[in-house]
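so i finally got all the pieces together for this one. its two components total, 1098 residues if u count the protein bits. some of the lines might not be protein, just check the labels. i wanna see the whole assembly predicted at once instead of chain by chain like last time, that was a mess tbh
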Amino acid sequence: MSGFRLKAAETGGKALHFTFDGKSFVGREGDTLASALMANGVSIVGRSFKYHRPRGIFTAGSEEPSALVTLRSGGRHEPNVRATEIELYEGLEARSQNRWPSVRFDLMAVNQLAGKAFSAGFYYKTFMGPRRAGHKATQFWYFCEQFIRRAAGLGKGATSADPDTYSRMNAWCDVLVIGAGAAGIAAAGRAASAGARVIMCDERARGGGSLTGAPELLDGQPAAEWASDAMEELAELDNVTILTRTTVQSMFDGDTYLAVERVNDHRDEPKRHQPRQRAWTIRAASTVIATGAIERPIVFAGNDRPGVMLADAARRYAVEYGVAPGRAVAVFTNNDTGWLAARDMARAGVIVSAIVDVRADVQDDVRKAGEESRAEIFLGAAITGTRGWQELQGAHVRDFHEVSNTLGGKKRFIGCDCIAVSGGWSPAFHLTSQQGGKPQWDAELQAFLPGEASANWFGAGAMAGKFGLRNAFRTGEEAAVRALTQAGFGEGESSVPVIEGDAIDYAPAPVLEINSPGKSFVDLQHDVTADDVRLAHREGFVSVEHLKRYTTLGMATDQGKTSNVTGLAIMAQTRDMSIPEVGTTRFRPPYTPVALATLAGEQYGHLSTVRRTPMHDWHVANGAHMYANGPWLRPESYNAPGETVEQAYIREARKVRESVGLVDVSTLGKIDVQGPDAAEFLNRIYSNGFAKLPVGKARYGLMLREDGFLFDDGTTWRLDEHRFLMTTTTAGAGHVMEHLEYHRDVVWPDLKVALTSVSDEWAGVAVAGPKSRQVLAACVTKCDVSNEALPFMGVRTGEIVGIPVWIARLSFSGEMAYEVYCGANWGQALWDALMAAGEKHDIVPYGLEALSTLRIEKGHVAGPELNGRTTPGDLGLQGMVSSKKNFVGAVLNNRPAMQAEDRLQLVAIRSIDGQRIIGGSHLVKGTKDEPGLSEGHTTSTCFSPALNAYISLALLERGRARFGEKMYATNPVRDSHVAVEVINPHMVDPKGARMHG
Amino acid sequence: MKITCPYCGERDHREFTYRGDATAIRPSIDNTSLDDHQAFVYDRKNTAGTHRELWNHTSGCRTHVVVVRDTVSHEIFSCEPVGPFAKQLARNVAKLKGAGA
């Protein structure tokens, strides 16, 4: 194929410069990357997935299987983009994929020579065999696998962060119109006239559908102009929203749709303050689906050569973009639309060398269209092969008998560098199929039609099998009337234009494959050939679902938009069944590939939700390194100039053990539990007793899931007879609230309990260290903080610089410590007062790392140990599981396997060779090279200033019986193998003298 | 999918959290039978068709509701509140609706 810009279209349109594989080209405004490449004579744009065969441009839309390129570079690098969809912009940068060293000369094309070996099921047959010693051949294939896997595939992902933003939008409408072709415009106009709120989406830049290249006159105007005017008129209406460059990707239950708007993909960089893409969730009262139809090819030998493309695509390149798809175009068709494509191309100035039709005869007006194109006409004939090296040079034609499906006569050669092929049209009912709509086969149209579905949608135009402009306008309005009724509106007014032009019969001859020697590709993107389909049949994979999985037919990024029906037709023929008997697979959302960033929208990067504590600014101003803990930002450590995080946390932790420190604990989940049955409720929720907790006391509690595993922990304080303040882990707050609400509402609605989340209402500061009492004594009023008046686990009220506070004597660090809570607005003032009171004791603020170090030294568990797979017994907390009462999880926690002796148990390990222990290391007996089986793993690691060694909490099989044992903490991924000793997790002050003192 | 919360009206299902099979009833607090607890936690009929399930309007009023739904077509037949305040709230809603009419 050597496309070029047509004479008639040479003037007009701004010139746009772009590069492809580093080479500079000029296109013009209105081009897609595909049309611009074609205008520059670039024919090979990529290499195929498996065989690395050269591939060109096959379609002119989102159904493109072949012309996949990588766009832009750096953080905006985007692989597997369809060149047929990308609007050209100044400076566009594109590269071909899956080739080395270049797209024209690809060494990996040697895969073709081994084509027999890479047939369907290649991976299953080769790599899934038994892996036994002495199985030399299998081992050899395992060795080869890494190379083959590297050779197969498409574009490579980006390696740096995407600098752009993405957003999400919610919308609601009375009538959603999907597709802005003739049927869509008719539907939107009708719906708008009835006063309904309308949203119309179209995946192309300007909508118009087939009207943009149609030869018909509408109300005496060229179709493209009429469409453009109609779109403008609709856009001016207050009750109509038009979203172009917007693909409706998915249809969900309850008439909810996901649409992706490519807001800035047609620019080099997004406009300032605009997202690159926007994901719309549209909820519609009713919907008109006018998504048109997708042309499909006839499969023949050599049909993947660059230059073979769909007939309507070839026509659109000529008519809409002013680009000839080749110097001499041969049309191969089984229906009338191929003939009209030939005529329209000829009218635009393209030389059509031949029209080959499998049918023995055609209608007179169709024949007349063929004559107008001045092509040589072959009736009752078929293309049986192509000639050329990398590009197409010509095709072989033989006689074809449609009824017996046999070839005959002499082979004739026709010169052409483009074959425009049409095998009929497949309605694009992907959305309704996603919702489980069972497609119905229409033998006349040789196509599946959408069938009935339960959702409130109404098909129109080609999507519903109503082909042709007249049908499109009529059914578009009919669907709109039904949609209006559904949404509770009147019928609106009709405004169908007068149409002058061809009346075409869209029904094709039932011929989708010409069976002749050579590779005939069904699925161009996954390199599935007609022989692969027959091979699947021979090997017993005859159902459509098996066929799909065995051959990967229709499983590529294009989801088989141009290949599914042909694949089914070949299977049907092989099985001697009809296509509907073979059946079809269900389409899955999305319609075209969607970037994960688009779905994430604002929940990513600087736009994501962030929660800051009342003391956040102070932390930042004082050198804190902030760390994201769920949505919360917490100080990791307060780094002095030149100090690393590790140096800082060791200094902070040491200071707490020696003197005193304070830490912001405002992020802990806090739930206010009130009511006459509050104590009973907590007693059922926690594994340890809470019924008899005295007022003014706190208790550490464990919550289990109903299946007996640990769920969350925290302290709960009895503030009054009927009032408790529960604290939860930072990350667990939301889940615990739901857990409590579930049990209150559903399980025990008879208990009188009210639950209120107060996490944000209270600011919290923990003051820890041997001098902590002195610090409090220096600033607290209206509360005696002496050991007698405020013993361990005591809770009192008081004031600090006039701020009312709750003071609870709790210790996470193992030191004497207090948690002081006040109203969130007073958080900073409280913090300042405590800092001032601690000044003479050299008080230090400490962060999450030091907090964690202190609790690891003490053997207190936290998130990494409460990992959803541990029981209280595993963590040495069996004593906190009451046997005197029933509670959530009590019964299932008692199951033998939950109490088994060989479970992983909490231990600590200490590095004995001075090396750092890495989190997630496995505990083994063997050497670095032969580590042997894992007997456990590390959970929370740190450097312990108290032990002067790297330590870690770990879960180890029968761990509690193994103190003193020497092992290795191995982490092959991080290249680490540390000699360790298993020790008691209560490393600092096991008797608790410091915190009770 | 849209769920009509008895208090908040028709809302997208994303405002709700699925809380499982509403026909599975937790054994009473005095019941210590392993079989009963095992059945409550693990045994599910996995009904294809009309099913009672529990949802929590977590991003709304936080009420637990029992939704009767067809698990095949996803059609929703009813949505009733549960919990200690259900009756009271239902009365309030009825009163409000009466006042509106």
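Residues 901-996 of chain A form a domain with the Elongation Factor Tu (Ef-tu); domain 3 fold (CATH 2.40.30.110).
Chain A has a mean pLDDT of 92.
anyway lmk what u think
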